[in-house]
Write a structure and sequence with these properties.
Largest sheet: 2 strands, antiparallel
Oligomer: single chain
Radius of gyration: 46 Å
Number of helices: 35
Shape: elongated
Structural class: mainly alpha
Distance between the termini: 148 Å
Mean pLDDT: 87
Helix content: over 70%
């Protein structure tokens, strides 16, 4: 730099300058002429006239004075002297940026912007501080593109500028350039000790960008810097998620290096997961056995061992360990649940149910659904009602937990809690309605009695109440609307049911089951020709969505019968009858298919077939009055038909007997 050259050449010159005067007095000491030899040895021979020397002297003096004033906190005077120095040496990049820095400090953004346009093009060494200063100036002028470009140069320089990196990061937040922000934070964080707020922001950015690998590396760096186990834990979890099990196992070894935590529940879970991920299950089992031997009172070890033995189908060992866990408070429910599954595999349904009920006693919410499914298969309605009554009853434990969450002030946790409890209550009401409807259907199924039908109506009314309660709590879902509407149909609230079905069709137009269901009932009730046609069209829509569905074909066959298309109806019902083997249960428990076939054959005067079908109806429902009545009618018709066939055969015989010629 030329300024350094002046300092070297004029080390013996005393320079006196006054800030308020334009006159400069120079006292020059005697100077000896350099020898020819010394000139030859000089690396940079300099030739300057007296005017240029004076200008540089003034620049140097003003610069030194400016530095002195800066050190004293006199920034205004310092800027004046620095400006004087720059004016004396206007091609000096260093002096230009020194002035620029003081202008920025003063807040003179317009002046700084004007000078920046000149300074950035001057020759000389370009530093990260200069780039950062330009970034600052352009940022003040809202010239974000230029500001970002110069901040990036400052950060990418060999002498990385931390202040520039921080200011750059703020600007990147403004323009939402999160990929670059992640990169800048990665540079900045290790050098400033991972301040928590900035660390949290980087974690959030990486999570949103789904950069798990980079986040795992970050957690490792933070752990190395701080020694906080939570970051090592998070790193291990991420490594598991990315299936980098060897690295995870290395992290687990580090995690367990502290003997205080070596065999705690989290360490054991990590160790098991790492070996399982590496397909080294046998090593995992041996490790767990060794830990359990050291700590027989640590039930979490036994829990992991039992789970792994279950996975490896070591049934006998697993059952022994699950049975031990039934005596623990924390793992008893899970243990009973697993034992229930084993008993079911052994086809011991009684023992399996016993274990499942035990699991429910320990953790009602977790095992309620599984128990209700079992009760539904068993048609154990009274047991199911007790479970559901408990589910919809006020729960003091939930109220206590709700109060604690409110006291903590964690609104997000409170929101999740309220959402979960509300949904659970709605599901309980829906489940209650479903069991009541199932109970009613069983009572209505042939053979039935008037007393059973009356009870069924009571159950259906209760079911409606629970469906409405579920709707008020959680809104109308597809399953809820269908259950509510279908129950109304059977409860003889036809118009109300139609209204609910229409609502269902608007919200869920692809619900083929619902369309077939309403379509069939409209056809079967036969209240008006218009409703029958509408019902038939609904069935057609269902068949378009599922043309192979036998139940829909049965509905269509009955619709064709109601519309008077008997031959087409029979063809459709013969397709249903051909599927009898695959749908045996439907034929055995429901008389409708045989009743449809019987009526259609009867309409086509296929009396023998009709009689056979009605007889099958009676086999299922011996008290079916319509079948009994039609059988009598058909028998009479068949008898008359047989007699009619016999009459023509008798006439020739009579003529023969009378002696008349044939």
């Amino acid at each position: 730099m030329r300024l350094k050259l002046v300092i070297a050449l004029f080390a013996s010159i005393a320079l006196v300058a006054c800030s308020g005067s334009k006159q400069v007095v120079v006292q020059q000491a005697p100077v000896t002429s350099p020898s020819e030899e010394s000139v030859k040895k000089s690396r940079y021979p300099v030739k300057m006239d007296s005017a240029e020397l004076l200008r540089l002297e003034i620049a140097h003096g003003s610069y030194l004075r400016a530095l002195s004033l800066q050190n004293q906190g006199e920034y205004g005077l310092a800027e004046q002297f620095m400006q004087h120095a720059y004016e004396s040496d206007p091609e000096n990049r260093y002096l230009a940026f020194s002035v620029l820095e003081l202008m920025v400090l003063r807040g003179a953004s317009s002046e700084a912007a004007a000078l920046a346009e000149k300074a950035k093009n001057l020759k000389g060494k370009q530093t990260s501080n200069q780039y950062a200063l330009l970034g600052r100036v352009y940022s003040e002028q809202s010239n974000l593109d230029s500001a970002l470009a110069y901040y990036k140069k400052a950060v990418d320089s060999s002498d990385q500028n931390l202040r520039a990196a921080y200011e750059y990061s703020l600007l990147l937040e403004i323009v939402h350039n999160y990929d670059e922000l992640i990169r800048v934070y990665a540079i900045l964080l290790p050098q400033i000790g991972f301040p928590q707020s900035m660390l949290d922001r980087q974690i959030s950015l990486l999570a949103n960008a789904k950069k798990d690998s980079a986040m795992a590396d970050l957690f490792g760096e933070v752990y190395e810097a701080r020694g906080e186990r939570i970051y090592l834990e998070n790193q291990i979890r991420l490594l598991f998620g990315m299936k980098r099990f060897e690295e995870a196992l290395s992290g687990v070894d580090e995690f367990r290096a502290d003997t205080t935590f070596a065999d705690d529940s989290l360490s054991v879970a990590f160790l098991t997961a790492a070996y399982v991920g590496l397909n080294q299950d046998s090593i995992a089992v041996d490790s767990l056995k060794a830990i359990y031997k050291r700590h027989p009172d640590r039930h979490h070890v036994l829990m992991n061992l039992a789970l792994l033995e279950t996975k490896l189908e070591k049934k006998e060992q697993a059952i022994v360990h699950w049975e031990r866990l039934t005596s623990t408070d924390k793992y008893a429910a899970s243990a009973y649940g697993m034992l229930s599954g084993y008993a079911l595999d052994d086809k011991d349904s009684v023992k399996s149910l016993h274990y499942l009920e035990k699991a429910y006693e320990k953790e009602p919410v977790a095992y309620r659904s599984a128990l209700l499914v079992r009760y539904a298969k068993m048609r154990a309605y009274q047991k199911a009602y007790k479970v559901l009554e408990k589910a919809i009853a006020p729960n003091p434990k939930l109220d206590t937990l709700r109060a604690k969450i409110r006291e903590s002030g964690n609104l997000e946790e409170l929101r999740k809690f309220e959402s979960a409890t509300t949904l659970d209550l709605a599901n309980a009401h829906y489940g209650y309605g479903t069991f009541l409807q199932m109970n009613a259907e069983d009572l209505e199924r042939a053979p039935t009695t008037p007393e059973k039908l009356d009870s069924a109506k009571v159950f259906r009314k209760k079911a409606d109440d629970h469906y409405l309660a579920a709707s008020k709590i959680a809104g109308d879902t597809q399953n809820l609307l269908f259950a509510y509407a279908s129950n109304l149909l059977m409860y003889d609230q036809v118009d109300s049911a139609i209204a609910v079905f229409k609502k269902l069709f608007v919200k869920y137009p692809q619900d083929a089951t619902a369309k077939n269901h309403l379509g069939y009932y409209l056809v079967d009730m036969n209240r008006s020709p218009e409703e029958v046609k509408w019902g038939s069209s609904l069935i057609d829509e269902a068949l378009k969505m599922d043309s192979a569905n036998v139940a829909y074909k049965d509905s269509k066959g009955w619709a064709l019968y109601r519309l008077g298309n008997y031959k087409e109806a029979l063809k459709m019902m013969e397709q249903v009858e051909a599927a009898e083997d695959s749908l045996k249960e439907m034929f055995i428990q429901d008389t409708s298919v045989y009743a449809h076939l019987a009526a259609i054959c009867q309409a086509l005067s296929l009396n023998d077939r009709a009689l056979d079908y009605y007889q099958k109806v009676l086999n299922i429902d011996p008290q079916n009055d319509n079948a009994k009545k039609q059988i009598e009618i058909l028998k009479q018709a068949i008898k008359e038909s047989e007699n009619a066939q016999k009459e023509p055969a008798k006439a020739p015989a009579a003529e023969k007997d009378s002696g008349k010629a044939p």
